[in-house]
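tool_call: predict_structure(chain=1)
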Amino acid sequence: MDKEALAELLKKELIIGYVYGLDGECQEFYFEKSPSSIASFIMLKKEHADRMVLTDTLDRLVLDTFGEFISRCPDQRLLQEITKELVPMQMGKKEPVSIPIVSVDEAS
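tool_result:
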């Protein structure tokens, strides 16, 4: 990601996505907070994820998953909005949107 795009992304309200692989390794990513972005992130990272934990920048839980399926989401309104986007993607009726995702290493 170029520096200009990174600077623009970092100005927005962000989600931190912790992606835990089958090997136990954890990768950390930043992306914009929106129901569509959250659904797309889950689908884009599902191949490499045993589970995912998504938090806000203050480390408060937004949701966690087992693979591509949401396990917990404390904000029920947000859960409904994400589900409207996620379920059609899971059923193959809609493609995930290409969203800017930056790794922690790139953001440093």
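agent: The first strand starts at residue 14 and ends at 20. Proceeding to next step.
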